Amino acid sequence: MEKKRMCCITTIDTTLRAFVIDAMYQFVEQGYEVTLVCSSTSKLREEKGDKFRYVDMPMKRGVSVSDLLIIPWRFYRFFKHEKFDFVQYATPNASLFASIGAWMARVPIRLYCQWGIRYVGVSGIMRTILKSLEHLTCKLSTDICSASRKNLEYAVKEGLYSSDKATIIGDGGTIGVDLSKYDIEHKQDCKDEIIQKYPILKNKFVICSVGRLGRDKGSFELLEAFDKLAKERDDVALLMVGDIEGNIPSRLIPITKCKRVIFTGYTTKVNKYIAASDVLAHPSYREGFSMVIQEAMAMKLAVVTTDIPGPSEVIEDGVTGILVQPRNADSLYEGLNKILSDKNKMTEMADAGRIRCERLFNRQRMQNLTYEHRMSLMNKNL
User: Using 50, 70 and 90 to split pLDDT, how confident is the model at 349?
Assistant: First the structure.
């Protein structure tokens, strides 16, 4: 019997590593040949060995007219030669280019993993352009896997696709959380390590923000909200984990100089920084589902996040965290202050979050559901 052939595509390797590869091992074990494609696969080859095939397809991030004219044709020739049974793609550029190429090559199953909607939070002519590109990606795909129920409903309302074309995995999300990495038995050890590095955190309620620090992640509203908190109480600190994107507005520069505001930069030890914290603040403007919130819940953190599709579905408002309004520093301040002012309630939310993560978002469950979902698509197309 001829071996079935699958292909998984993202723009950069970190997305494949974080959200795709772990779910593909099950297919390899069942005899499928799985090819991984991104701008550069060299690190993946070193880490994952010969279980997968690897193909480099250089792509720029952001809007690139030259890539739009060239890369879809490269994908077309690639797909035409390889004759895959199943292609899945995620992240905006890779999905756009691969969907065009796969449609031209008539790949039978073209799955768009819509883990975010690129034009949300953008206005003006750029929103119109990005929405048109998103609509094209959806139209050329045979199937769509949305990050969450509310994201799916939003996309249908926006006219991106019909409801019968899309599904979600389980209760939402992608790959789930590796609970062995977010092991609460070692939480104190991790916390001690981070406090040794940043002694100012000792005996403080630590608010943690994880991810790309920029406008659409609500980072600037978080700085404003913390500034108000810090003026009222001296027992709080802010740990901002991740690279800063763009320039911080000049009005916020004085806040960044506060000794109780720490910028860590990029780190591979996110789990340790989360372990050193008490509350996750995730005031994003737009989100697919939010792995960071799941990881924070796994490490027993209460969560303050925005009432938008994705984050509002990961937590239970008032049970595992608090929902606040996006783009609103005052609402964020009120949510953080409410949690920090009731330590017992904060502990209850943290405990409930861990239980919810174990039940709904553990990695093994999500891997099994992903395998069942992909198999159902392939069986449907036999």
Answer: very high
Q: Residue 24: its pLDDT value, please?
A: 95
Q: What is the pLDDT of the chain when averaged over all its residues?
A: 94
Mean pLDDT of 194-222: 93
Q: Domain coordinates of the chain in residue numbers?
A: 5-176+363-380, 184-360
The whole-number pLDDT of residue 179 equals: 92
Longest dimension (CA), the chain: 70
Q: Which two tokens stand for residue 10?
A: 């993202």
Question: Following DSSP, what letter does each residue of 294-344 receive, concatenated?
Answer: HHHHHTT-EEEEESSTTHHHHS-BTTTEEEE-TT-HHHHHHHHHHHHT-HH
Q: CA nearest 361: which of 174, 175, 172, 176? A: 176
Secondary-structure breakdown of the chain: helix, strand, coil percentages, each rounded to the nearest 5: 50, 20, 30
175-195 pLDDT, tens digit each:
999 998 888 898 999 999 999
How many CB atoms are closer than 10 A to CB 330?
13
Domain pair 5-176+363-380 / 184-360, same fold: yes
Instruction: Kindly give, in sequence order, each residue whose CB lies less than 8 Å from that of residue 124, ignoring residues fewer than 6 positions away.
Output: none
- 354 three-class SS: helix
Q: Mean of the pLDDT values across residues 41-47?
A: 94
Q: Is 42 exposed, middle or buried (0-12, 13-18, 19+ CB in 10 A)?
A: exposed
Closest CA to 114 of 77, 88, 81: 88
- Which of 183, 253, 245 has its CA nearest to residue 209? 245
Q: What's the alpha-carbon Rg for the chain, to the nearest Å? A: 21
Do 118 and 154 form a contact (C-beta atoms < 8 A)?
Answer: no
Residue 338 confidence (pLDDT) above 90: yes
Q: Which fold has domain 184-360?
A: Rossmann fold (3.40.50)
pLDDT in tens, 292-307: 999 999 999 999 999 9
- Check if the beta carbon of residue 209 is closer than 8 Å to that of residue 219: yes
Cβ-based neighbour number of residue 132 at 10 Å: 11
5-176+363-380 homologous superfamily: Glycogen Phosphorylase B; (3.40.50.2000)
User: What one-character-per-residue DSSP string does 346-365 give?
Assistant: HHHHHHHHHHHHHHHSBHHH
